[in-house]
């Protein structure tokens, strides 16, 4: 657990506790960017961010307002597997209760029902999301553009060989306009369930998709303080980075 | 067929040079018409073949090994063009063999890209291999970092003589346990320097996280003990020696320890046959390979080019080249050779640039970089995706200040091309 809180310059409207799940093992594709963006945007909106980490064997912190889960290597997934199972009930309760969560790649898969590896063994997930994932020989790699009903166009980068299929209990985050997404057959990317946004997209995801960052922040603040009054967010570079990223080849 | 392939290859090489074509094309032609050519040419060398591979520092390390061996009187063949694919090796060979396909050299020292090295060693088992590191670089090309480690393991397993491993990179050091045939040697770091080389797994081990404990490490043949402003201490054979260094940047100097370990192994190891006086003199005179901490002169002041390819490399670059007093430019391209994924920029801390800001941001992903700097609260002068325009603006507005450009591979090529119009830039053919 590592608190790295920084107070805003003016009176804070409140404190939001952001928990990174297993950053030691599940950090390999720049998912730190998601934590940094939430930390800074919370400040821009006038709130005090408190950034926490949860790693294997740690005590689970109290009063967590937002959960972040990243991608990792297959070897990293094996290391966290047992610990994650031991927290399944807790995380499921938080999800059902409406805690906003962002789950990327590896932890997206492990929050599902299971991951059936290519060589045969089945890694059980924690069943928060009604999804299943099957390991394949094919690696899906490249820039992705997704059309979503809630967040407009979502831009990112995918790199995975697990292919995920959604069950009836979850909705896709959106429809792929460029790239592959969840799997190579149905054109869907990511999953939405209660206040969980799950996706294969790195990039990192939140910097170029501030609409998702602000959704997580707004939801957390409303749950804790009733109402959310946004501050000034300077998204000049985000807008231009999105324009340029959208034009880049796969 | 054999009698014709070499002359034909040499002819294609000449024609493609006239056309200003790629350096690997003649290699492709020879490989097609005479697939055994490379193997035959390399199999006759008295000291065999040494392969240098790993994510970071291959070019500079290979250059060092070559110069160290030459200092010991060996005639060395190498793929100088940076064409580090099998076909590039064949192309370089075509230039150097005689008309009968014979190579007049004692040893070949070859820089090979991890993925291509696997194909190469299947055809030409090396006598020596030097494996530098496995870092998060172009993961979109290789998939996962563990996969890259497997590629290096394969190179080691095909090596017949000695394998030189980085003791401080767990994914590389671990390879030793899988080997039966070759002798294993290590190059290593003093404990006091370990902290300057975060492994990718430790990148986000922020304040408060426990410092990774130092496990029992094997004895290293060469250890880098200290890095000074223009010198360094190396320990081998139980003695610590100090030598001047033209190379800049801790990571370059760590690779000097790697080169030293390989050269010692090739020249008969220990103090037995290698002449350490001339070895160290050669080491102190090695200049960086192009773009790797290279210093050019613009308006009478230095302009340093620092190649950045992955989070560890960028972090080390920022640490090795402090920004105080310098005008700074960052150019990030996302062409295939650079890697298309921009995620890695989020694993680099740019806090060290906060005090002086960044004057110019450029490259096809200039706005991704600008966005990254914004979230680290680093002030930005201007942003322009067009590299020639941005560079001209950078030189104009930074007049009177020494300059530094952090750039990805293809951005560096573009910058060198522009700079060659106004200053002396070493031609790399």
UniProtKB/TrEMBL annotation, chain A:
Substrate binds at residue 139. The keyword Cell wall biogenesis/degradation applies. It catalyses: L-glutamine + H2O = L-glutamate + NH4(+); beta-D-GlcNAc-(1->4)-Mur2Ac(oyl-L-Ala-gamma-D-Glu-L-Lys-D-Ala-D-Ala)-di-trans,octa-cis-undecaprenyl diphosphate + L-glutamine + ATP + H2O = beta-D-GlcNAc-(1->4)-Mur2Ac(oyl-L-Ala-D-isoglutaminyl-L-Lys-D-Ala-D-Ala)-di-trans,octa-cis-undecaprenyl diphosphate + L-glutamate + ADP + phosphate + H(+). Pathway: Cell wall biogenesis; peptidoglycan biosynthesis. Its EC number is 6.3.5.13, 3.5.1.2. The active site is at 105 (nucleophile), 202. One of its GO terms (molecular function) is transferase activity. Residues 18-209 form the CobB/CobQ-like glutamine amidotransferase domain. SUPFAM superfamilies: Class I glutamine amidotransferase-like. Signal peptide: none annotated. One of its GO terms (biological process) is peptidoglycan biosynthetic process. Keywords: Cell shape, Cell wall biogenesis/degradation, Glutamine amidotransferase, Hydrolase, Ligase, Peptidoglycan synthesis, Transferase. Coiled coil: none annotated. Forms a heterodimer with MurT. This is Lipid II isoglutaminyl synthase (glutamine-hydrolyzing) subunit GatD. The gene is gatD.
TrEMBL record, chain B:
Its EC number is 6.3.5.13. It comes from the Bacteria. The keyword Repeat does not apply. One of its GO terms (biological process) is peptidoglycan biosynthetic process. It holds the Pfam family Mur_ligase_M. Residues 307-412 form the Lipid II isoglutaminyl synthase (glutamine-hydrolyzing) subunit MurT C-terminal domain. It catalyses: beta-D-GlcNAc-(1->4)-Mur2Ac(oyl-L-Ala-gamma-D-Glu-L-Lys-D-Ala-D-Ala)-di-trans,octa-cis-undecaprenyl diphosphate + ATP = beta-D-GlcNAc-(1->4)-Mur2Ac(oyl-L-Ala-gamma-D-O-P-Glu-L-Lys-D-Ala-D-Ala)-di-trans,octa-cis-undecaprenyl diphosphate + ADP; beta-D-GlcNAc-(1->4)-Mur2Ac(oyl-L-Ala-gamma-D-Glu-L-Lys-D-Ala-D-Ala)-di-trans,octa-cis-undecaprenyl diphosphate + L-glutamine + ATP + H2O = beta-D-GlcNAc-(1->4)-Mur2Ac(oyl-L-Ala-D-isoglutaminyl-L-Lys-D-Ala-D-Ala)-di-trans,octa-cis-undecaprenyl diphosphate + L-glutamate + ADP + phosphate + H(+); beta-D-GlcNAc-(1->4)-Mur2Ac(oyl-L-Ala-gamma-D-O-P-Glu-L-Lys-D-Ala-D-Ala)-di-trans,octa-cis-undecaprenyl diphosphate + NH4(+) = beta-D-GlcNAc-(1->4)-Mur2Ac(oyl-L-Ala-D-isoglutaminyl-L-Lys-D-Ala-D-Ala)-di-trans,octa-cis-undecaprenyl diphosphate + phosphate + H(+). This is Lipid II isoglutaminyl synthase (glutamine-hydrolyzing) subunit MurT.
